[in-house]
Amino acid sequence: MMAHLIDGKEISLQIKEELKQKAIEYKERGIEVTLAVIQVGNDPASSVYVGNKKKACEFVGIRSLAYELPEETTQEELIALVKELNERADVNGILVQLPLPSHINEDFVIKTIAPEKDVDGFHPQSVGALSIGQKGFVSCTPAGIIELLKRSNIEIAGKECVVVGRSNIVGKPMALLMLRENATVTVCHSRTKDLKEVTKRADILIVALGKPRFITSEYVKDGAVVIDVGIHRDENNKLCGDVDFADVEGKVEAITPVPGGVGPMTIAMLMNNCMEAIV
Ligand SMILES: NC(=O)C1=CN([C@@H]2O[C@H](COP(=O)(O)OP(=O)(O)OC[C@H]3O[C@@H](n4cnc5c(N)ncnc54)[C@H](OP(=O)(O)O)[C@@H]3O)[C@@H](O)[C@H]2O)C=CC1
Ligand SMILES: Nc1nc(=O)c2c([nH]1)NC[C@@H]1CN(c3ccc(C(=O)N[C@@H](CCC(=O)O)C(=O)O)cc3)C=[N+]21
Predict the structure, then answer these.
(1) Where does the Tetrahydrofolate dehydrogenase/cyclohydrolase catalytic domain start and stop, copy by copy (predicted)?
(2) Nearest C-alpha to atom 27 of ligand 1 is from which residue?
């Protein structure tokens, strides 16, 4: 069987084109959408994502402010910057790149961001709103996956969906969104007994466990749809996901590649959230 390749790069481009039109309309009304991105230290992987976000902002027509703070920045200094950006009327979205250095408490920083500027959807108020079906920003990676499925005409309602991983930024919000779309949802984690048996039930398998090429064909049902969130560099410095693409591809109905799958959608949804930050 030839698997359908879900082209996240192409779909994200489509979304960014739509947002570009919206940005033009805002500009005509005198509104310049502005995203502030804060990075503490210079983790090379984070720098790649921050660079991609900047490029996407330029494409869409969103003004981006980059704050590159040294590794030694104190929690107090970071909090002071977030509070200053909260107050600024010309800043619509605030993103603090994670992970933060270990001397800074991430939860504390996240809860300082004004919920109406929380374009990452990480603030407890945004997460709470999602869990009870109220309006609020939704974490970009899971939101992007829903968009990928919808724009690929993959039906969600009534499907058996298994999410591997329960992190606050991917697994948990992903499960909540699939539930909202009326899938039957199972969430797996490191204490799941017999992971293979569970993942093999999935019509839609979403993998965010953070281990390169961990999911092989034995974990996957024939004809399933597989979404790979993981992103790693292998021994040969090549990008790969949590799914062993070459092994799984022949067995499935549709699959996302890495790169070019979920990653570009994360960025497109961030751009979307920035536009929605305009009241
Ligand atoms: N493309 C994109 O836009 C993004 C990609 N990523 C990538 O996605 C991956 C996951 O990220 P994130 O959610 O932040 O990762 P975390 O490390 O925060 O979470 C990993 C989750 O997987 C579970 N897990 C780990 N090992 C196993 C195992 N052997 N069997 C079953 N479950 C397991 C953990 O379980 P437990 O809770 O029990 O520890 C945990 O819930 C990473 O590769 C990351 O780089 C992340 C964000 C965005
Ligand atoms: N506050 C915060 N918000 C985040 O959304 C956030 C974060 N911190 N920390 C790190 C993770 C990871 N993440 C990615 C974004 C884009 C790609 C991406 O653009 N990927 C491309 C290219 C990858 C490459 O060339 O390295 C692709 O998969 O095709 C990947 C991963 C956002 N994250």
Answers:
(1) 6-120
(2) 190
